[in-house]
Amino acid sequence: MIYIGVDPGKTGGIAVFKDAVVAELIPMPIAKAGKKMEIDEKLLVQKFSSYVLWPRCPNGVRAYVELVGARPGQGVTSMFSFGTGWGLVRGMLAALMIPYELVRPQAWKKVMMAGQPKGSEYHVASRLWPKIEWPRTPKSKQVLDGVVDAALICEYGRRCHLGEK
Question: Which CATH number fits domain 2-160: 3.40.190.10, 3.90.1170.50, 3.40.50.700, 3.30.420.10?
Answer without folding.
Answer: 3.30.420.10
